Amino acid sequence: MTLADPQLLTGLGSALSIFLASTGSAIASAEGGIYALRKKGLTAFVPIIISGVLAIYGIIISILLVGKMGSAELTEVNGYRHLCAGLAVGLACLASGMGIARFLKHLNVAATITSDDSDRPESEPLIQRERRAMVNENFVHLALSLVFLEAIGLYGLIVALFLIGK
């Protein structure tokens, strides 16, 4: 009798990869939807598209893990590796989604600040000055920031692929 069933561990890894990656994607998509509502044009949907890619990372690993479940070479060590692979991609995508959501939330809050700052004193808090400066956002800066935040999930996918393969 083994300590843990390798098929159970692989199934848990598969479930966790989908659940955590989709949670990160949903958190980022919620703030991306608010961003899209206040912007005009097709470029407003870039945060939502990038957030959706995080869920795809979890699906990729989950499909690979389910394919390994019926394998005759499934040992206890491989079960633990598959569980770690699911956790690696899931937690990385969750962290990436939370980072994207936090970044977009700052942009959304900054856009609600009124632009009539001619009567504001120069000694106002630094945070408010930074938020007013963020209102004039640039699409290139937005896209680069989102790509770098999404790279965290991609790193989790790469680690998971190394853990699954021998």
From TrEMBL:
<feature type="transmembrane region" description="Helical">
    <location>
        <begin position="44"/>
        <end position="67"/>
    </location>
</feature>
<dbReference type="Pfam" id="PF00137">
    <property type="entry name" value="ATP-synt_C"/>
</dbReference>
<dbReference type="GO" id="GO:0015078">
    <property type="term" value="F:proton transmembrane transporter activity"/>
</dbReference>
<keyword id="KW-1133">Transmembrane helix</keyword>
<dbReference type="GO" id="GO:0033177">
    <property type="term" value="C:proton-transporting two-sector ATPase complex, proton-transporting domain"/>
</dbReference>
<comment type="similarity">
    <text>Belongs to the V-ATPase proteolipid subunit family.</text>
</comment>
<dbReference type="InterPro" id="IPR035921">
    <property type="entry name" value="F/V-ATP_Csub_sf"/>
</dbReference>
<keyword id="KW-0472">Membrane</keyword>
<keyword id="KW-0406">Ion transport</keyword>
<keyword id="KW-0813">Transport</keyword>
<protein>
    <recommendedName>
        <fullName>V-ATPase proteolipid subunit C-like domain-containing protein</fullName>
    </recommendedName>
</protein>
<dbReference type="InterPro" id="IPR002379">
    <property type="entry name" value="ATPase_proteolipid_c-like_dom"/>
</dbReference>
<keyword id="KW-0812">Transmembrane</keyword>
<feature type="transmembrane region" description="Helical">
    <location>
        <begin position="139"/>
        <end position="164"/>
    </location>
</feature>
<feature type="domain" description="V-ATPase proteolipid subunit C-like">
    <location>
        <begin position="83"/>
        <end position="163"/>
    </location>
</feature>
<feature type="transmembrane region" description="Helical">
    <location>
        <begin position="79"/>
        <end position="101"/>
    </location>
</feature>
